[in-house]
Amino acid sequence: MIQTQKRKRSPWRMIVPVVLVIALLVAGAVYLSHVFSQRVSKPIALTARSTQHVTAFGNDVLYYDGMMLHAVNTSGGHKWSFQLGQYAGYHTFDKHIVAWSANQLYILDGRNGSPLYNDRMGAEIQFARVGNDYVAAFVGELSSGNIHVMDLNGKSVDSMQVDSQTLLDIGFFAEGPEMMWVLGLDTSGTVPSLMMQTYRPGTLATGNATLGEQLVYKVYYYNKLLRIADTRQIRTFDYKIKQDVNTPPILIYGWLLTDTRQVGREMAQLLVPAPQMDGTLHATDLRVLMNTRDRVLHLPTECFGAALGNKSVYGFSANYVYVCKYDENTFKAYALPIFATRVLGITENNRAILAAGSDVYLVQLPE
Q1: Is 280 exposed, middle or buried (0-12, 13-18, 19+ CB in 10 A)?
Q2: Which of 34, 68, 179, 198 could be cross-linked to 207 through a Cys-Cys bond (beta carbons 3.0 to 4.6 Å apart)?
Q3: How is residue 39 annotated by DSSP?
Q4: Res. 13 pLDDT band, cuts 50 70 90
């Protein structure tokens, strides 16, 4: 029998691939250690609890402790407090605050907390909204109440009755003269339908339209046009609620519009994947609209929150904040000094209000 001699393999054929893999792993570890060694500055602990309706207000932070409305600056220092009473709500715009408790309505100067108006309405206040020039308070039952419009000193401007619909929200738009939109659910037909009306305070209605069956959850104003986001699309309308033919609808099914921010002459719009049934977010991608640009940005790891800043888009995980400038497509990672659980807002001077369980912190964000 003839035996064939097996050919010996060179040991280098096995060693070289192993060495290459080790080299790649080391290089990756060095890169990641460099990226993830970047840290944000030391956090500032606030006296607020994360359940106390904490929100950004310009460069400050507002929170309601169940009795008092407090304002603190971004160094954590107390600015002012105002007693609202129990079960109160509030809404802000620019430098003004409208607050309500039962049938009591307050209009506050947000710079020092002093009341510009304080009086009782004829019935319980469901909610109120403040704009540049006016305040609107919805008083009475949701399906049969009245909208009272007044100036920032409480002088009555308009009163209109709500009929044949359930009022959902009110808002103001336009730089001047300021106008108002009213969103309601029309239940008089066989199929419920959303209705929007616009008004110029002190005059007659300027427009109305049926928006369909899709749930509208955000209305905002940009470039002299109203943008209306529902569960399917973002549509653009003029002040008479006529759809703008020059701006096609943007399909956003499967995404949720969570934040808008003026960035120079552009409006940044942030969309996240639709949250889970329990409201939690597990985002690995973010979508950013700016004028005609529509981009999907891939996060390094899963995030529970996201927001827009002055110069960048932010994603938040428990231990890191991920930063992507508006003109870039990749994120940089910065280690957080706390174990974050929620994003409560971002101030105008780019400080994140973060919850760590029930505690609340301010963190200066990298730009």
Answers
A1: exposed
A2: 198
A3: B
A4: low
Q: Provide the terminal-to-terminal Cα distance of the chain, rounded to the nearest Å.
A: 78
Strand spans (E) along 174-310: 179-186, 193-199, 205-212, 216-222, 225-230, 233-237, 250-251, 255-263, 266-273, 283-290, 293-303, 305-308
How far is CA 221 from each of CA 37, 178, 238, 272, rounded to the nearest angstrom? Answer: 40, 12, 10, 20
| Residue 256 pLDDT > 50 | yes
Which of 239, 146, 167 lies closest to 200, judged by CA?
239
- Tokens representing 311 are 């110069």
pLDDT in tens, 47-84: 999 999 999 999 999 999 999 999 999 899 999 999 99
φ and ψ of 254, to 5 deg = 90, -5
114 band by pLDDT with thresholds 50, 70 and 90: very high
Q: Decide if 102 contacts 123 (C-beta within 8 A).
A: no
The rounded distance, in Å, linking the Cα atoms of 208 and 284 is 39
How far is Cα 267 from Cα 292, in angstroms, rounded to an integer?
Answer: 10
Q: According to the model, what pLDDT value does residue 110 have? A: 96
- How many other C-beta atoms are found inside a 10 Å radius of the C-beta of residue 282? 11
